Amino acid sequence: MFCKYCGTEITDSTRPCPKCGNYQGAGVDGMDHSAQKQPNYQQPNYQQPNYQQPNYQQPNYQQPNYQQPNYQQPNYQQSNYQQPPYPVQPQTMYPYPMKWYKALIYVLLFLTALSGLVNGIMFFSGSHYQGYGDMVYAMIPGLKGLDSFIGILSLALIPVAIITRQKLAGFKRDSLNWLMITYVLGAATSLIYTFGAIAIVGDLLPVEELISTQVVSLIASVVVIVLNNIYFKKRASLFIN
């Protein structure tokens, strides 16, 4: 077989001519490549549409004018309340020491009441004569009445000492007055007994010794009363109940 384009002898019509390269008929893909031309495609001319941005206007919102309500504070009137007069604690509310005050309310006034009880029993029973009471009263009858009166004063010292103790412990206004009464009653009892016995017995007693003893005792009692008066006058602001 010969090529129809250049006349060269070829053996297979399905292969291109070895000289000119043309196919003799339909090729392996069933198409005539000799007559095939590439189509001329033209790119379409697309124009971008001209979009205009819409002109949006921001709405003009006006802030509402809220007025703050005028709240008025209620007028509370302070009630005229008075603090009840509780007892004042001297340890924290006053600079002066209170040891003597504590000794009085916890020890001394209780001992005073106890001594009043003991002395009252002794003078009423005559036991202070060491078992010779009946003999003494038989010889000197006036001592019986004196001892009975001293017994009454001694027993009277018991409630006075207890009341004084409670007044001091409660910081009462009249506490100092009751304390002075306690001291005076104790000193008066001793003086009445001494001078009453001297008046009744007379020369049978060591008069000078008894009088000197009572003078010393009286001076001591006066000193104690004055010192206690000064002590509690300085602390008068505590005793307000």
Question: What do you see in this structure?
Answer:
The protein is an all-alpha fold. Helix content is 50%, strand content 0%. The protein has 6 helices and no strands. It has helices spanning 90-93, 99-125, 133-139, 142-169, 175-201, 207-234. Helix 2 (99-125) runs antiparallel to helix 4 (142-169) and helix 5 runs antiparallel to helix 6. The longest helix has 28 residues, at 142-169. The chain is rod-shaped. The model is unreliable at 27-38 and 88-92 (pLDDT under 50).
Order of helices and strands: HHHHHH
Q: Helix segment count?
A: 6
Instruction: Give me the secondary-structure category.
Output: mainly alpha
Instruction: Describe the main β-sheet briefly.
Output: none
Give the N-to-C terminal Cα separation.
154 Å
Net shape: rod-shaped
Q: Helix proportion of residues, in percent?
A: 40-55%
Mean pLDDT: 79
The whole-angstrom Rg is 67 Å
Overall number of strands: 0
Strand content: under 5%
Unreliable runs: 27-38, 88-92
Describe this protein with a few key phrases.
241 residues; mainly alpha; rod-shaped
Write the layout of secondary structure elements.
Layout: H1 90-93, H2 99-125, H3 133-139, H4 142-169, H5 175-201, H6 207-234
